[in-house]
Every structure is written in structure tokens, then in C-alpha cells.
Write a structure and sequence with these properties.
The chain is α/β, with parallel strands linked by helices. It has 19 helices and 12 strands. Strands 1-2-3 form a 3-stranded parallel beta sheet, covered by helices on one side. It has a 3-stranded antiparallel beta sheet with strand order 4-5-8. A two-stranded antiparallel ribbon has the order 6-7. Helix 15 (365-377) runs antiparallel to helix 19 (429-441). It is elongated, with a radius of gyration of 32 Å. The structure holds glutamic acid.
């Protein structure tokens, strides 16, 4: 069975980049009839916050991304400890004593010579006595995973195709700090094994982690999952990172963006498929395919999200939106206002034109007379606006703007707005006549 996972660290709120990864993993699982695991990567006790765990759940639920299982790394520390012991006994984990400054210096020297800053395995070269002396000095080691330099690393990436790494060109990763706390690399691999994860889809910033983790899977006697790395999201003008705070569910929700718009956009952004206002998850799922993912960075454009949102709102059936509409706004009201809004929250501004009170407009003498005439001509029928305007046209010879605009202004207090043919029946005969009379009175 296909098992995918989304593994956020609860050190902040989700942003478009994470949401996209979550969505794609969810879609992969759904498409395969498999399972989607939400894994909270909270081994960093200092930076992880319970409020972010709650926010992650809330945001995913708002988006309609549901998970089959939730796991937490902080509840699995004994598993990491056990894997650590096994790998250490097998000679794949070793203690290292360099300080941050020493490591930094080594890096600088290598970079200065134009060499890649690969860890020199200095810790492996220590003699027993040297190591004992460090320990006697009270230096606590941190721990590195020893890459097997004789085993070239390769995988067939779901997005990037064939990948090859020479392990000798990678640093043995630090997997555990001197205080015993865990870095990302080993716990994630242990989890992927224990949770039966079959497919890992994540950002391409993880490609070199994958190379290391593939050796970890093998060292643990496990088969690595299939890996795919998607191109990162960038903003229209380059990096997204500066704006990430404004690109989360909370901000989207406040702006009136529908979850469906976010899903429709992110499902296809960076793929060869066109971004369309598709609300039917089944359609998005049917066309979802890693082979359509491009290698170039995917451009996230707020304006595109707004366009998709507007299109979705314009096509939204009354039944789906009725619970979010102002009291008394019925299907005809929604239908009248719908083409004029780009977010559902904007309905109130237009619905006010029906319920009143409306703005007062100053009219010229001549228009006042015309509006007085309109008040007497107004009669109720299946289409009062058409009847009113055609009879005023005959009676006054007015046409175009001169015919329509004063009526719209008198009836709604505005120069533009929803179709008057739909609005007038909603305003009703009595209120309409009152508004015309009042405008005529000046
Ligand atoms: N917590 C990691 C991150 O947010 C998970 C990476 C992964 O998918 O393995 O980057």
C-alpha cells in the first residue's frame, strides 16, 4: 500500500510552500488509494510550539487535506535511541569532538583552497588516547553517521529522473548533538521505515539529505522509499522567503481566498498542466501526475491566486455558499451579486443596496423631474426594470447613460453595481418607488 507523509516542524505556521508539499503528498496517497500520514517533526524542543501543532492541524483541516494518521517525533525518542545503538554497534555512527569554531575554521580553509567544504573525518583519526583525553576534559561528543564511500548513491527521482551522488563528496552528517538531542536526518529515516512510508515527495532542498538517508535506510536493513523532489516555489520577483508570513492560511482566509482556490492553484503550479479554477477534487486528482512536474522553480503569483479565486466564486452554487450569506439573502440575491464580487465576503457591500440604507446622490433639476416621472411609471411585473426603462425611453426620448444612470443612482446610490434587472425585483416595488420619489424631491 502506498503511504506518503507530510512532516512539518511546528516552529511556525504553514506557508504556500509547505501547503503545496502537503497537498501533493495527500494527492499521491489518494490517487493510489493509500494512506497519508501527518508527522509532526518536533524533536527540536526549544523551537517547537504546541500552538503551531494546533495551527498546522487547523490549516490542513481548513484546506480539506485530511490525514489518516498523526505521528509525533517527540513520542518516538526511544525508537531513535534504539536505531542509534544498532548503527553505532555496526560502526556506522561515531563520536566527534570538534567545536563549532574548529569546524568553521576547517570549512574556511577548504573553501579558501577552492575545495568543497567536506568534513575531513578528523574524529575518526583520533587515537584511543586522544579520545580518552577529550572525554577526561569533559568534552561531550556529537555524533556523525559514517557514509560508506564505497557505495555510490543513486535513485530514480520521480521528478528529477536519475540521480547520482558520490558519498565521498558528502560530509558525514551530524545526527545527534552533544546534549543528546536529535537532528532531522536519522529520526526521519527511522520514521519512514517504521511507518511504512513508500513514497517521499518533498522540496528539492532535500536532495542531498536524500542521498545520505538512502545510505541510512540500507544501513538499517530497509528498502528506501521512492523519492521525488519538486522544484521550490518562488515569488514573481524571486525569493518567497521574505513574504512567507503573509502567505499562510490565516492571511489567505482573511483576504477571502477560498481553500478550493489554493488547492486548484497549488495542485498544478509548476506542472505542465494549466492552472484552472477546478473545484472538483476528482478532476484534479485524475490529472495529477509527477511526470508533469517541471524542474524549473514554480512561480507563485498572488494575482493568479486571486484570479482563480474569483473564477471559483463566480461559479459557486447557492447551496454551497448559502450559510455564509447575509440574513435574508436568497438564491436570487446571490445570483444578482455573484458576478460583481471576487470574494464571498464582498456580498455584504452589494446586498446593502437591496436592504438599504443607500447613499444619497445629488441630482440636477432635469434628472429630478425624470426620476419623478420614473416613480409614477414604475409598475410591478415579471421584469420591472425592462418595463420601466422601455416605457421611460418612449416617454422621454432618453437613451443610454441618460436613461439608465440616474435610475441606478436613485435606486442604489451608486454609479455601478450588479445588473439592475436582477436587483430591482429584490429591492421591491415599495422601496424602489420610495427611493425614486426621494431622489426626485432632491
Ligand atoms: N521536517 C522536515 C522539513 O520540514 C521534513 C522533511 C521531509 O519531508 O523529510 O523540512
Amino acid at each position: 500500500m502506498t503511504v506518503t507523509r507530510f512532516a512539518p516542524s511546528p516552529t511556525g505556521r504553514l506557508h504556500v510552500g509547505n501547503i503545496r508539499t502537503a497537498l501533493h503528498n495527500w494527492m499521491l496517497a489518494q490517487k493510489a488509494g493509500g494512506q497519508f500520514v501527518l508527522r509532526i517533526d518536533d524533536t527540536d524542543a526549544e523551537r517547537s510550539r504546541e500552538e503551531y501543532v494546533a495551527a498546522i492541524r487547523e490549516d490542513l483541516a481548513w484546506l480539506g487535506i485530511d490525514w489518516d494518521r498523526e505521528e509525533r517525533q517527540s513520542a518516538r525518542l526511544d525508537r531513535y535511541e534504539a536505531a542509534f545503538d544498532t548503527l553505532r554497534a555496526a560502526g556506522r555512527i561515531y563520536p566527534a569532538y570538534e567545536t563549532q569554531q574548529e569546524l568553521e575554521l576547517k570549512r574556511k580553509v577548504l573553501l579558501g583552497r577552492g575545495l568543497p567544504p567536506i568534513y575531513d573525518r578528523g574524529a575518526l583519526k583520533l587515537t584511543e588516547e586522544e579520545r580518552a583525553a577529550k572525554e577526561a576534559d569533559g568534552v561531550q561528543p556529537h555524533w556523525r553517521f559514517k557514509l560508506d564511500h564505497d557505495k555510490p548513491i543513486g535513485w530514480d527521482d520521480g521528478v528529477r529522473g536519475k540521480q547520482k551522488f558520490d558519498p565521498a563528496q558528502l560530509s558525514d552528517p551530524v545526527i545527534r548533538r552533544a546534549d543528546g538531542s536529535w537532528l532531522y536526518m536519522l529520526p526521519s529515516t527511522v520514521d519512514d521505515v517504521d511507518m511504512g512510508v513508500t513514497q517521499v515527495l518533498r522540496g528539492e532542498d532535500h536532495v542531498s539529505n536524500t542521498a545520505v538517508q538512502i545510505q541510512m535506510f540500507h544501513a538499517m536493513g530497509a528498502t528506501p522509499p521512492d523519492f521525488a523532489h519538486e522544484a521550490l516555489l518562488v515569488g514573481k520577483e524571486g525569493k518567497l522567503s521574505k513574504r512567507l508570513g503573509s502567505l499562510g492560511c490565516e492571511a489567505f482566509r482573511e483576504r477571502g481566498i477560498e481553500p478550493a482556490a489554493i488547492i486548484a492553484l497549488l495542485a498544478r503550479l509548476g506542472t505542465s498542466l494549466p492552472v484552472e479554477p477546478i473545484v472538483d477534487g476528482a478532476v484534479l486528482l485524475e490529472t495529477f501526475d509527477l511526470s508533469t512536474f517541471g524542474r524549473a522553480p514554480a512561480k507563485f503569483d498572488d494575482a493568479e491566486l486571486e484570479r482563480v479565486n474569483t473564477a471559483i466564486v463566480h461559479a459557486m452554487p447557492f447551496d454551497e455558499v448559502k450559510d455564509r450569506l447575509p440574513d435574508g439573502m436568497d438564491e436570487a440575491g446571490w445570483h444578482a451579486v455573484q458576478p460583481n464580487i471576487s470574494t464571498v465576503g464582498e456580498v455584504g457591500e452589494w446586498w446593502r443596496l437591496v436592504t438599504g440604507p443607500i447613499e444619497r446622490v445629488e441630482f440636477a433639476e432635469e434628472d429630478r423631474a425624470y426620476l419623478g416621472q420614473a416613480a409614477t411609471v414604475l409598475a410591478w411585473s415579471a421584469d420591472p426594470w425592462r418595463d420601466l426603462t422601455s416605457s421611460l425611453k418612449d416617454k422621454t426620448g432618453r437613451k443610454g447613460k441618460g436613461l439608465f444612470l440616474p435610475l441606478r443612482q436613485a435606486l442604489t446610490g451608486m454609479n455601478h453595481g450588479p445588473d439592475m434587472g436582477e436587483l430591482l425585483p429584490l429591492i421591491g416595488e415599495e422601496a424602489a418607488r420610495r427611493r425614486l420619489e426621494r431622489a426626485a424631491a432632491g
